[in-house]
Structures are given as C-alpha cells and as structure tokens.
C-alpha cells in the first residue's frame, strides 16, 4: 500500500496556501500571488504525473494523455473521474467536474473587516469580491493539470471557469 494523506489535510493545506499568498504575502499584488500559487501547482502536477505514469508506456497522442488526466490522474487526486470531457478536435479540451472538491468548502465572509465593500452598500461588489477570492483557489489545480501535461510532453495553457459552484470547468489549450 502506498503512502496516503487524509483528504481533510490536503484541503486545509490548499486553503491555507491560497489564504497566505493572497492575504499576507502578496495582498497588494494578486497577480503575483496567482502566479506563485499556479507555479506550486505546476510542480505538484509534474511530480504526481511522474509517479502515476512510471510503469506506463508513453502516450501516443494528446487525446490519450488528456483521457489519462480525466480518468486515472483525477481519480488519484479526487477519488472520482472528471464528469465530462469535451474537445473541439483542434487542441482545446474542457474538463468538467460537477462537484469540484476544493470548491465545496470555500466560503467568503463579506463583512467590512474582510473587505473594503459594505454588503449593504452594493451587493454586486460583494459578489465580485467573492468570485475573485474563489477564483484564486483555482490557480493551484490549473497548475497541477498544466504540470502533469507538460511532464507528459504536452505544453499547454490551463484556465478555469466557475459559473455554477461547486461545478468547475478547466479549459486546456494545447500549445502548438
């Protein structure tokens, strides 16, 4: 049996990492915080894909590697497969997770102590702040996906879309 870590510990570390980078280390520079969080995810994804593909032959094409990410890799990380995979057959793939585990525990407190926006003054600004805070939690998994695919020989860009929490779509664009 391999080494394992409790899911709650991983969840807590991810939440604390995002909080530390966004609130303490780079509170005035969210773009730097986002790049640092994504870079940590890249390293994690790179190393995990190395571990999970050690005894496998190299993938013959992009689709085969993406399917590996959706099934085996995702199952190792989240104990479930990606719910849906779409492609335009021109280098763009959309991985849909209808209940992304790292977003199920994310919450945002819109009190004036945590925000420069009063909830009573403009609710749309509170929603914008909440969406921005939630999106910071997606740089890490985007980095994991990019790192894993890069290790498999597929340079790409990965972005995330959250339109209906806790569902999340990861858009993978293969670089030519």
UniProtKB/TrEMBL annotation:
GO terms for cellular component: cis-Golgi network; trans-Golgi network; TRAPP complex. GO terms for biological process: endoplasmic reticulum to Golgi vesicle-mediated transport. CDD domains: TRAPPC6A_Trs33 (cd14944). Belongs to the TRAPP small subunits family. BET3 subfamily. This is Trafficking protein particle complex subunit 6B.
């Amino acid at each position: 049996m391999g080494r394992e870590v409790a899911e709650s510990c991983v969840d807590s570390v991810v939440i604390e990492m995002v909080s530390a980078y966004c609130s303490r280390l780079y509170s005035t520079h969210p773009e730097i915080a986002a790049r640092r969080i994504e870079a940590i995810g890249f390293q994690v994804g790179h190393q995990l894909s190395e571990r999970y593909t050690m005894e496998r032959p190299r993938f013959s094409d992009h689709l085969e590697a993406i399917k590996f990410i959706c099934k085996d890799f995702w199952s190792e990380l989240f104990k479930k497969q990606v719910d849906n995979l779409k492609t335009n057959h021109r280098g763009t793939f959309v991985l849909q997770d209808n209940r992304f585990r790292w977003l199920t525990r994310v919450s945002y407190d819109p009190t004036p102590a945590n925000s420069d926006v009063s909830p009573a003054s403009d609710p749309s600004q509170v929603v914008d702040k909440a969406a921005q805070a939630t999106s910071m939690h997606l740089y890490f998994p985007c980095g994991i996906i990019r790192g894993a695919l890069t290790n498999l020989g597929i340079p790409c860009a990965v972005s995330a879309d959250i339109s209906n929490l806790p569902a999340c779509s990861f858009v993978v664009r293969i670089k030519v």
